[in-house]
Design goal:
Blueprint: E1 62-66, E2 71-75, E3 79-82, E4 87-90, E5 92-100, H1 116-133, E6 139-149, E7 152-160, H2 168-184, E8 197-200, E9 216-221, E10 224-229, E11 233-236, E12 239-245, E13 250-253, E14 256-259, H3 273-304, E15 342-344, E16 350-352, H4 393-398
Antiparallel strand pairs: 1-2, 3-4, 5-7, 5-8, 6-7, 9-10, 11-12, 13-14, 15-16
Organism: Conger conger
Region (Disordered): 1-52
Subcellular location: Cell membrane
């Protein structure tokens, strides 16, 4: 880590008060000679071999950055590195951008924080701000984080003690008052600050910021940043810069992890696929049960129904076989006619029948001729056996 410059501030320190006064005699005492071609009269630490950060010389909550001849420990925004204690100490930090236009020329190597020119330029700017802000109560240091073109824009952090009553407005007014004094008095020590501009910035907008952007929200006010957990995360006693997340299947409620309700799982209980599966299974199961009940009812109703047959004949005709009701008998031819053969049937119609009822008692001999005076009533049913043109032996002889 680079050593602080030992040049005392030109503005004397004052005691802490409710509203720190803005130094009004900044231009009364001239700066030490300063120009853009010579480096400040400082003593740099002994050169370190490349790869000094490989030994992890910085504390846990900081990062190590290699420089051309040394290294430096970068703490998170909102704290500063204490060389004596080798820790990051919380502090009030008032960030801003200082635009320098006089007696300085931007070079591309200034963007490289490991270059020698960045180290020299940042030292000059830090010394300049220390002379301007050193009279405010609780002032510790001013760190240059980066340099970029336009003419030369320096992103700086003005660090004060945590108990200091200095505000962002006090810091800005003090710097702008010094710029105005340099513009009115062309002192040899004002050649770098003449025509400069200073704008306040938000500590939360730095990258990296004072809070973990994934788990916490950053709030900045009066030099102090505060981190609040995002929904679904909870704070722990191990860090005030980041928040913890509950394991899968749980979610954060009132700073504690609780189990997800039924049907939900995953990170912060955002996975509802299990609930969807349960709902679909219930619906399909209900439909299957309804179909099964409907099939059982259909089978029961079908077995109880009587067979329904259709017939062109009346119902009573199906009960009696060979019924001759409403059937007109076919007249048969006989060799001898007898009026007694004409009889009245039940439906008052005359038919050529013999009125006999009974079963088939026709003998085979009688079916061959018409000798019988009263042939069987059902002889006409035996078609193919009776021939009306058949003549017996005696009849042929008589002719």
């Amino acid at each position: 880590m680079t050593n602080e410059l030992s040049t005392p501030p030109l503005v004397s320190s004052t005691s802490s008060s409710a509203t720190p006064p803005v130094p009004s005699t900044f231009s009364s005492t001239p700066f030490e000679p300063d120009n853009s071609t010579s480096a400040p009269n400082t003593t740099l630490p002994p050169p370190r071999p490349p790869g000094s950060c490989s030994s992890s010389p910085c504390p846990f909550d900081s990062t190590c950055e290699e420089l051309s001849v040394s290294f430096r420990c970068l703490c998170l925004p909102g704290s500063f590195y204490s060389i004596a204690e080798n820790v990051c100490v919380p502090a009030k930090v008032f960030p801003g951008e200082l635009r320098l236009t006089s007696n300085i020329t931007f070079q591309e190597e200034m963007t490289n924080t490991s270059s020698q020119i960045f180290l020299e330029t940042s030292k000059r700017i830090s010394e300049l701000l220390r002379r301007v802000l050193g009279g405010l109560p609780g002032y510790i240091r001013s760190n240059v984080r980066e340099l970029r073109q336009g003419s030369v824009i320096a992103s700086v952090d003005n660090v004060f003690d945590r108990t200091s009553n200095v505000t962002q407005a006090t810091t800005s007014d003090t710097i702008m008052q010094a710029v105005q004094d340099c513009n009115n008095n062309s002192s040899i020590g004002c050649n770098l600050l003449s025509g400069a501009q200073f704008n306040d910035t938000n500590l939360c907008n730095q990258d990296p910021g004072p809070c973990d952007a994934m788990t916490a929200n950053c709030n900045f006010g009066e030099g102090i940043s505060a981190c609040t957990c995002k929904p679904g995360f909870f704070s722990t006693s191990y860090s005030n810069k980041s928040c913890a997340v509950c394991p899968s299947g749980q979610r954060a409620e009132e700073g504690k992890c609780v189990a997800c309700p039924f049907g939900y799982a995953g990170f912060n209980c955002n996975d509802s696929s299990l609930l969807a599966v349960v709902v679909i299974a219930c619906v399909l199961g209900g439909l299957l049960l309804i179909l099964l009940l409907a099939f059982m009812i259909y089978c029961c109703c079908r077995t109880q129904e009587k067979p329904n047959y259709t017939s062109p004949y009346p119902t009573e005709d199906n009960r009696s076989s060979w019924s001759n009701k409403d059937i007109i008998p076919i007249p048969r031819a006989h060799l001898q006619w007898d009026p007694s053969q004409i009889e009245m049937t039940e439906n008052r119609r005359r038919s050529h029948g013999n009125g006999m009822m009974g079963s088939y008692d026709v003998s085979k001999g009688d079916l061959r001729t018409f000798k019988d005076k009263n042939p069987s009533r059902y002889s006409y049913l035996m078609e193919g056996h009776a021939n009306p043109y058949f003549l017996g032996e005696d009849e042929r002889k008589g002719k």
